[in-house]
Amino acid sequence: MASWSAAAARVEAPVARLRPRPRPVSRPVNPLRSGVTWIVVLAALLGGIVALNVAVLQLNVRLSSLSRERVSLRSDNAMLQSQLSSAAAVPRIQSLAHRRLGLVPATDTTYVELGH
Q1: I want to staple 103 with a disulfide (CB 3.0 to 4.6 A). Which of 22, 41, 63, 97 is the partner?
Q2: How far is residue 92's CA from residue 84's CA, in Å, rounded to a whole number?
Q3: Does the reported pTM lie above 0.70?
Q4: Is residue 24 part of a domain?
Q5: Is the backbone of residue 115 left (phi > 0), alpha (psi -120 to 50) or beta?
Q6: Residue 68 belongs to domain spanning
């Protein structure tokens, strides 16, 4: 009988059944809670910062170029001003008048009085 009770125990033992899992309820996913959304947003912001830095760098290069050009133009203006002042000097004008036109400086001054 011992074997009969062992066999009966095996038969009478309940068999564990797997219960079917309830299907998860499909809820709409909030796009702001998605990690991919935040990665895309941060990538766009970083791209904007890089673009802004590149634009500032280009402006600085242009500013440096214009600054060098300004220094060169000021130097040219100073040189031209010097040439202009030497061209307008009295001794130079007198020598040009004597050589080209044959004019000579007056020796004495003569006054003419007109009737009152």
Answers
A1: 97
A2: 12
A3: no
A4: no
A5: beta
A6: 34-101
Report the run of H or E that residue 62 belongs to, with start and end.
helix 35-87
Identify whether the C-beta of residue 10 lies closer than 8 Å to the C-beta of residue 2: no
User: What sign does the CA torsion over 78, 83, 87, 91 have?
Assistant: positive
Contacts (Cβ under 8 Å, ≥6 apart) of 85? none
pLDDT score at 35:
84
Euclidean distance between CA atoms 8 and 27, whole angstroms: 49
Q: Copy the structure tokens of residue 56.
A: 């500032």
| Residue 53 forms part of a structural domain | yes
Token pair recorded at residue 12: 């009478």
Q: Which residue do the tokens 């299907």 mark?
A: 23
Number of folded domains that form the chain: 1
- Residue 93 parent element (H or E): helix 90-96
Answer yes or no: are the C-beta atoms of 92 and 86 closer than 8 Å: yes
What count of residues does the chain have? 116
The whole-chain average pLDDT of the chain stands at 85
Amino acid identity, position 39: I
